Amino acid sequence: MKAGMGMSLRQMTGGAMAMLLVLFCTPAMAEYGDVVLNKRAEKEEMRPVIFPHWFHRIRFRCKVCHTELGFKMRAGANDVLMADIVDGKFCGMCHNDQIAWGPDNCDLCHSGKPATKWGIRGGSQTKGPGRW
Known about the structure:
There is one protein chain. By secondary structure, the chain is α+β, with helices and mostly antiparallel strands. It has a single domain (27-119), classed as Cytochrome C3, CATH 3.90.10. Helix content is 23%, strand content 6%. It has five helices and three strands. The chain has a three-stranded antiparallel beta sheet with strand order 2-1-3, with no helix packed on it. The longest helix has 10 residues, at 14-23. The chain starts with 13 loop residues before the first helix and ends in a 12-residue tail after the last strand.
């Protein structure tokens, strides 16, 4: 890298990128295809979780999360506790500070605007043969 030039996003370490996300993280609005998890979050005085389903879906086949990690195929059908994630279940299989950031980075997942209703943004049906 030449002197005086900033680091590109590709050159940043995972920790540096996570730090930037934390520093500039403002409450997020759920976008089309995001899953909002807020049945328990605000009761526990946390912001809702905005799960970017399509961000994960373009990287992994459905079976990775919905078979191997145990997530049911319906938004709201999973009873996931932070204790489960810390114990390496559900999200915690990957979000373990080795594959992806771990559960200590609360604001990276709990990023939703308060009072955001839980569910899928933009509809809950697929257009393919596995319509549910």
